[in-house]
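Re: that backbone. Tokens:
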């Protein structure tokens, strides 16, 4: 990983994002984007103080959904961070694979209102290209002339873990030297909020928003919907070394599986999650005892946190109790299709700086969740290898393994 970009509820650049993670800053608050007074869930982890015209011309920005704004902004950060000047790369060997779990739902809602309240004649000709998730990698490639593999992936909350793993496979397969990859989401909207609320997935801790997301803690009552984008530059190692690129960490493994169990609930024994972890570890060719950290899926829902704990113990055995585990969703909320990328970035920054971000709001232990979740304070620890777990509705599981880069 040679470049990083972040738009998040706790910062719109990497230094701010990382500092707030380490300091346990919550990005959860009362939703400001639309009226929530009459809604049972009033909280979310919104992106704050974001101006798309920092990265996109004003005229062009009006032709895009916020999900595309976030994806482009994070991509521009990552490309600049990696030093991908025109002279440094062959554009035919640079791919762009960026996913979204939902895509341009704000555009969909707005245009549907036009259809119902006015007429089909008033629907924007830009409706479709503003809404479709795959427009994000299209815009990024057009902006820079990148002609390598270009498409989107959608697998709910596992989306951008899949995009990063797939990008790695494209590089290993010789399809590209560099892939710009990750995810974006801008789904804090009335329709999304109502849907997740009515399936009883969201926290209703409206009276204390910063403490609403509390992964692995006894009193957790659901996840907090978030938004933003995480984009990374993955690069073939020798290619990166030849151009003296900065290297944050090395991605070593990618595991993926399906639960084949239920459309929203994880397998009660964590079988699919365990299989994905085992596959990533096998690909990494790393011994179990050499792993010290897992950035967990850790959604703050009753079922996920319990089954993820079961899965970790089934894979690592007694070694599970020697791991530091943390859920950065306790601070960022759940960014859905962007969460895998944001959390992979957190893993790689952990490996680079040798500091583990905490799981905040951890007050009362849950007997079913009995591992070390790095409660409330960041911890310094020597870490060579780590995992990032992400699992999605539909039983989609994706796990990434990474190690500290040694030049």
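Recovered sequence:
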């Amino acid at each position: 990983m040679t470049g990083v970009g972040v738009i998040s509820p706790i910062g719109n650049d990497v230094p701010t994002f990382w500092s707030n993670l380490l300091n346990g800053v919550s990005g959860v608050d009362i939703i400001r984007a639309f009226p929530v007074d009459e809604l049972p869930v009033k909280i979310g982890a919104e992106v704050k103080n974001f101006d798309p015209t920092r990265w996109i011309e004003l005229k062009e920005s009006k032709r895009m959904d916020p999900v595309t704004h976030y994806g482009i902004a994070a991509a521009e950060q990552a490309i600049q961070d990696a030093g991908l000047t025109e002279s440094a790369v062959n554009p035919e060997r640079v791919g762009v694979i960026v996913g979204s779990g939902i895509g341009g739902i704000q555009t969909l809602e707005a245009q549907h209102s036009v259809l119902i309240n006015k007429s089909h004649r008033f629907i924007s000709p830009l409706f479709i290209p503003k809404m479709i998730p795959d427009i994000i990698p299209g815009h990024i490639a057009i902006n820079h002339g990148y002609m390598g593999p270009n498409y989107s992936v959608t697998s709910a909350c596992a989306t951008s873990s899949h995009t990063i793993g797939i990008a790695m496979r494209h590089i290993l397969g010789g399809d590209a030297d560099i892939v710009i990859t990750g995810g974006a989401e801008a789904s804090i909207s009335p329709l999304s909020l109502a849907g997740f609320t009515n399936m009883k997935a969201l926290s209703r801790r409206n009276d204390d928003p910063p403490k609403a997301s509390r992964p692995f803690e006894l009193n957790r009552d659901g996840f907090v919907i978030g938004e933003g984008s995480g984009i990374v530059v993955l690069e073939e190692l020798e290619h990166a070394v030849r151009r003296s690129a900065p290297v944050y960490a090395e991605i070593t493994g990618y595991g993926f599986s399906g639960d084949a169990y239920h459309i929203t609930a994880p397998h009660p024994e964590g079988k699919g999650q365990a299989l994905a972890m085992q596959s990533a570890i096998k690909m990494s060719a790393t011994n179990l005892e050499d792993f010290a950290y897992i950035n967990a899926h850790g959604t703050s829902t009753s079922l996920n946190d319990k089954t993820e704990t079961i899965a970790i113990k089934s894979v690592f055995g007694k070694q599970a109790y020697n791991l530091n585990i943390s859920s950065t969703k306790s601070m960022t909320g759940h960014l859905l299709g962007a969460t895998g990328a944001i959390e992979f970035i957190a893993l790689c920054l952990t490996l680079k700086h040798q500091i583990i971000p905490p799981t905040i709001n951890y007050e009362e232990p849950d007997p079913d969740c009995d591992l070390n979740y790095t409660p409330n304070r960041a911890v310094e620890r020597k870490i060579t290898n780590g995992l990032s777990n992400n699992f999605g509705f539909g039983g989609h599981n994706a796990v990434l393994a990474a190690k500290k880069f040694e030049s």
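Residues 177 and 236 are 5 Å apart (CA to CA). The mean pLDDT is 97.
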